[in-house]
Amino acid sequence: MTGRSEARLRSAGLRVTRARVAILDALAATGGHPSADEVASVLAAAGMRVPRASLYHVLGTFARAGLLTVADAGPGPVRYEVAGAWHHHLVCRRCARIVDVPCQSGHQPCLEPELPGVRVDEAQVIYRGLCAECASL
To answer: Which of 9, 16, 56, 74 is deepest in the core (most CB within 10 A)?
Structure first.
C-alpha cells in the first residue's frame, strides 16, 4: 500500500482498505483524466480485480470526500482526476485530449453569475478547440 494514499484517505475521514488505496494510486498513476474503465484497466494490469459496481461506489465516495473531481468534458464517459487546484478543461476536437486550463480567478467557483440571491460554489467551463499538438499540424 502507498503511504501517501493511505494518509489522504485518513485525512478525508475514510477507512483505509486495499481496494481504496489501489484505486487512488491508479488515479494518481494515470496523471490525466481517466474514465472508470481506464482505472479498471490500470488495476487489472497491476493484478487487482475490482468489481465494476465497487469501483463506481469508491469513485463516488472519493468525489464526495474531495479526493477527486469529476472532470466535466461533455458527452462521453465520465472522467475523473485527483483533486488539486480548481481548473477548467479544453477538449481537443481532433484527438479528444483533455487539457487542464487554469481558473481565471485562481479559486473556486471562478465565475459568478449576476443573479440576485443565488450562491454558486462551482462553475465548470469546457473549452473546445485544438490542443497545442494538433494546432501545430
So the answer is: 9
